[in-house]
Amino acid sequence: MTALISVVIPCLNGARDLPRQLDALLAQEVDAAFEVVVADNGSGDGSRDVVAAYGARDARVRGVDASGVRGINHARNAGVRHARGEFVLLCDCDDEVQPGWLAAMDRARAAGHACVGGDLIRELPDGSLVARESGVERVTWPDVPRPFGANCGFRREVWERLGGFDESFKGGGDESDFFYRAHLAGYPTTAVRGAAIRYAERDGFRAIARQYFNYGKGRAKLYRKFQEHGMPRPAPWRLPLVVAGALVFILLGGRNGRQRRRGVGLLANRAGRLVGSWRERTYCV
Question: What is the pTM of this model?
């Protein structure tokens, strides 16, 4: 066994989806030894029982308590704290790693990459494809690549040096903050080809609006924290264009659910940025 990799899954009420993710992880073919640590953030739906049942059948799976503080970054920190691996990978309980995911990530680890990100295959609840996105995103901050929290990883030493994930971020900007700090500390993120995860898009316009509203608030918080390091402010002139485009998507989308989803997400994101800007005493709309 060449290394021990820890796959950490923050979990809150994931009993319905966890089996699919755990089955996909345990079916991975990789030379390195690995473990799966499910950090339960206070589930009330039997998620812990699901993990315990898997752990009874396969010692590579175990659960840890992360219920002290509600929030995904608290669960991530608790999971990493209990993990035994020198290299940590993060994925979510309601998604599904694809064949070859772990092997591709292990090759990146062996090549010496400190922070990594894999592709997201975004799918609607009915299974139809929305998009496939690269393992790193540069739109928010072109000079600083960052991965998606649902498919990323890092050497344990990076987490220790940074002091873990910032638990004040909740629902938006949470993983971005960590990987921005990592980049500034000399640990840039590398996209890993072949390390893909099926990402389940939110179901229902209310859930979409809530998600993107939180993303918007997180964007303002990120800007407040990293503006002195060169993070760009969104161009003010784009706001009316984005709002107008969103309204077109919503009003003229007809039966095209994707267009309406996009419009709702755009409006909710800008509303979140407005609220976040007020809270952070900055301007990032």
Answer: 0.95
